[in-house]
Amino acid sequence: MTTDELWQDFYLHLRARRRSEKTIVFYRTTQRVFSRFVKEHQLPEQAEQLTIRHLRLFLRHLEESGLAPGGVHAHARALRALFNWAEREDLLDHNPVKRLEMPSVARRRLPTVTPQQVKELVKVSSQLDQPKRDTALLMLMFDTGLRIQEVANLQLDDLLLEKGLLRVTGKGDKERFVPIGANSMLALKVYLRRERKPLHDRIQAVFVNRMGRPLTKSGMTIRLHKLTRLVGRERAECAPHAFRRGFAVEFLRNGGDVFTLQQILGHSSLDMTRRYVTFLDDDLRAAHLRYSPGDRL
Hints:
It holds the Pfam family Phage_int_SAM_4. Residues 1-87 form the Core-binding (CB) domain. Helices cover 55% and strands 4% of the residues. It contains 13 helices and three strands; from the N terminus they run αααααααβββαααααα. A three-stranded antiparallel beta sheet has the order 1-2-3.
């Protein structure tokens, strides 16, 4: 079996697991780059004949080509996923990524929305044409940590407001229930009662644009960018995922635990959730000042 044939079987597996097209595009990028490298360097096309040395040469080639460390790491992750899956499915007798060292990536502090920034955005939203909708959108994102696509997917029957919950369909069509606070519920109810005007009754999306059509992921992102410009902040500071990080940080800062946070965010593993603890440097320093063993000698 050639490596390209192996990729095709892998995509069938991903679709059977209901992975998104965005995920498949991620892997196709690595397939395209790796296949070109194999042909240019006359490496074996049969997956069974690839070795760890071939994969190391590929990653080295990416580094020397000037690809950023994060990009090299992404290609390495894709190859690891492919060959680990092939080994589990008994499609290969040996796994070339088993001892492959993952490229190191410098940890960067990513932008995180703060409560003050949310207040600024809510205040400036009154200058635009759908202030109630924008306020509800901002409050909901910061209060629940939903992914932007999850917000765009929300339907009216997903609002279980009498229970203080949202029914959310996440990655892989996995359903979960996410709590929503009183202030966010109030903002949502005000928007639904006074400003939401769908084009027709068949439109059940919670958030609609000024034409009454469902507000898309890109539409929400564009609106956030516009609000961000109005408050004089950088685009990345209030990007959609910065709201998700902001929710996670404030949840932990206010006493929430990582196990509950994992369920709310819809993470498949606790390791994904633990990354948010790295945003709590100030809190860790404050805790050290209170409980420092050295200061108690």
